[in-house]
Amino acid sequence: MSAPASAPATPTGPGLLTPRPIVGLLTDFGLVDDAVGICKGMVLSIAPHANIVDVTHDVTPFDIYEAGLYIRDSFRYFPADAVFACVTFPHTGVQDNAIGVRTPQGHTYFAPNNGLLTRIVREAGVAEVRRITAEKVRRPVVDPTFYGRDIVISAAAHIANGVPFSEIGEEIEVADITLLEVAEPVVEGDWIIGEVAILDKNYGNVWTSITREFLDARGIAFDAELEIEIGGTRITTPLRRTFGETGEGEPLAYIASRDQLGLALNQGDFAARYGVERGHAVRVKAR
Question: CB 82: neighbour CB atoms within 10 A?
């Protein structure tokens, strides 16, 4: 009796960081046309054994701040040798200023130098930063209207295929990385004041900039009754551990997965009901 055929081995070699190097893609391209598919095809043409992960392609078009929040926690959950290509670039083709950032944990991020990597720089830190200038990691013919594919995503694919980070282009100072202003919560009397950082688009939940740390510092624990002013509306609602502790259609406050104060309706759309938009001020105090 012949031995059963074994599964084909995953190719490895000096051109691969891992058996299947991870390339995470974050864009505002959406999924209604072929843009994302073309980018994935290009990655695979350069790094055929890459494991492509869609972080998201539903960033609100041109919204750099939102893109930065979506990529913020990637270094906490992805393996240390993961490579990320982040594309939200309102002025594509006008400015050729994309960068690569390597963190102390070993993750590598490529993005336009427009503030998108603000959260990564501040929370993960920077071990090395370079401009993407080397022709070897850029497409030979650059289409100025598809900057993300030809420079940012192309560079990520080449790194995944074994090109050393030191060869993507000139090293620059951390101070040369463009950073967005991030409003931190403040305390005024009994109130904690923050803002709507992002909307949970699928469910209509509201994620604020007020962190668990701020709540803890004010002695606000689960089941506390909160008075909340947001978007011109004032509501009173308890701080709950889970949605199931609140009746269907009723509002609640909770700690979202990013360790920030969230506001929601149990099985409803909080943002739609109360007309909340990103950037609205949020005021919270215990009753």
Answer: 24
Q: Which residues of 216-255 are buried (b: 16+ CB within 10 A; e: fewer)?
A: eebebeeebebebbbeeeeeebbbbeebeebeeeebbbbb
Q: Which helix (H) or strand (E) holds 213?
A: helix 212-217
Bridge partner list, 234:
229
Q: If we measure between CA atoms, which residue out of 236, 260, 261 comes closest to residue 250?
A: 236
Total-model pTM: 0.85
What are phi and psi for residue 47, nearest 5 degrees?
Answer: -125, 80
Query: For residue range 92-139, what is the model confidence (pLDDT) as tens digits?
Result: 655 678 999 999 999 999 999 999 999 999 999 999 999 999 999 998
* pLDDT of the residue at 92: 62
Four-point Cα dihedral 254, 255, 261, 266, nearest 10: -30
Domains defined for the chain, CATH in brackets = 22-176 (3.40.50.10790), 186-286 (2.40.30.90)
Percent of the chain with pLDDT over 70: 91
| Strand ranges in the chain using DSSP code E only, listed in sequence order | 22-27, 51-56, 83-87, 98-102, 108-112, 128-131, 186-188, 191-200, 205-211, 225-230, 233-240, 251-255, 260-265, 281-286
Q: What is the pLDDT of residue 16?
A: 43
Task: Of 42, 72, 79, give the one whose Cα is nearest residue 55.
Answer: 72
For every residue of 220-240, which 3-state class applies, written as one string? CCCCCEEEEEECCEEEEEEEE
**Residue 165 binned pLDDT confidence (cut-offs 50, 70, 90):** very high
Beta bridge partners of 129: 101
Cα distance between residue 217 and residue 78, in whole Å: 31
Query: Would you say residue 6 has pLDDT above 60?
Result: no
